[in-house]
Input
Amino acid sequence: MRPSRKRSRAADDDQVGTRAGPFAPVLGGYRQCLARPLADQFFGADGAHRVRLDGTMHHIWHRHVWLRPLFSLLARFDILFPESGCDVPASMTIARVDEGATWRRTFAFVKSRRFDATMRYLPQSGLVERIGPRGLIEVPWRLRVLAGDAIEITTGRLQMRAGRLRLPIPGVFQVAVKAIERAVSENISVDLVVSHRFLGAIFGYDGTFAVRREALNAKGPNRSEGVSLQRYRPWFYAAAAYNLAWGLVVIVWPVSFFRLIGMPLANEIASWQALGMMVLVYAPAYWWVARDPMRHRHLVVIALLGKLLGPLGFLWALHGHTLPLLFGLTILTNDCLWWPAFTTFLIRAARGSGGWRALLAGR
Output
């Protein structure tokens, strides 16, 4: 292994009297060799600092649909979850506590999910992760430094805690975890797989995170963009209902709008009905965005483009005296009404995607 030339911020401003964290007995000898993001993750939290990891899970997956009820039950205790998806905003906060360090992971699905744990070092069993209510389940960790910028994490046999007793969990319920963490510039990439002895790989994710060490009295970070996008869900549910209703009315009663504004019947009623069909097919797209705004955010780019081109086409027709001014009522309700919500949604979505270029590239 080739040592990194970068020292971690944790190493640079340790305070006198700070006790070693749970990872020191295992990784202490590599502390000066680890790339900065990894060193900050494992050693950065102390009595005066916490560590934040903010980023995106590029892919979260499950296998065996019939296991979903089990994952739903585990989610009630902040252990894993039944959802899957792509480009899911996620974060983790690491803080020192008397018994070790807490790792609080948050995944910004439609319903935010958490996966919390407490890390401890026990002389008799080494480094362990405690999960579930009051740390009921104990998971032994094995850490192996592959290089200055890469660490492999594997787990041993799960046990249940009952005071000082450790009760073995039957083999049929045992799972094994393998994760690889790599430092990439100032970020960390993680690739994790949970496997069962008989079922094989059943759950996993991979993602990229920025690592930040901050003082405990610092102002808390803003919620992730994925969480902030949830506020737009009512808008997209409303858009889905509006497009469904408007499209059906135009298809089934195509002359109703013309009679409402006192406009002579169009010669091409079929073209007007075709427009109604085009509006109608946007309804499921808006429904998908409302269900999972971050995952389906790219659909809003197309929707907003349509809501910009529609008014431009109307102005062109108004200039050519082919449509009356009153026809603009449908432009107001179909297009202009939605501009503020759709525009601010895309601005926030672009930030969560890493910029406009990334968003428009479909990432």
